[in-house]
Amino acid sequence: MLEYFALFLVFFVFLVVFYGIIVIHDIPYEIAVHRNHPQQDAIHVAGWISLFTLGAIWPFLWIWATLNRDAIHGKDLSSNKEIDALTTQVDSLKVEFNELKQQLNKED
Pfam families of this UniProt entry (predicted)? Predict the structure, then answer.
């Protein structure tokens, strides 16, 4: 009975370590997704490749994932909330300008 428990424990530890290695090598990709990095797919592929190089390139992937200059400087160009708000404001100003122009033309 103790042999079966030891065998189960060996397999369990093997699976946890195997899964842990995969999760750890996926950290740069998760950083890239969180920071909305433009090259996140390439970082993900390189993370899988780093599994086969025994993690030799993994530290460089971490650095690459954090080098999104837009996220570093607080300019997230992919979120268009500010752009959409400005576009809406410009459109409303255009409508107001056209109404004022029509009123001036009617007075003449």
Answer: DUF3302
* Token pair in block for residue 37: 């990095």
Say if CB 28 and CB 64 are below 8 A apart.
Answer: yes
- Of 50, 43, 45, the C-alpha closest to 25 is 50
What is the average pLDDT across 9-38?
92
Contact in structure between 51 and 25 (CB atoms under 8 Å) = yes
On the CB side of 78, CA atoms within 13 Å amount to 11
**Domain boundary assignment for the chain:** 2-76, 78-108
Beta strand extents in 43-90 (DSSP E only): none
Number of continuous H segments (helices) and E segments (strands) in the chain: 6, 0
User: Quick one: tokens of 84?
Assistant: 């959409």
80 pLDDT higher than 90:
no
Does pLDDT of 77 surpass 70? Answer: no
What is the chain's mean pLDDT, rounded? Answer: 86
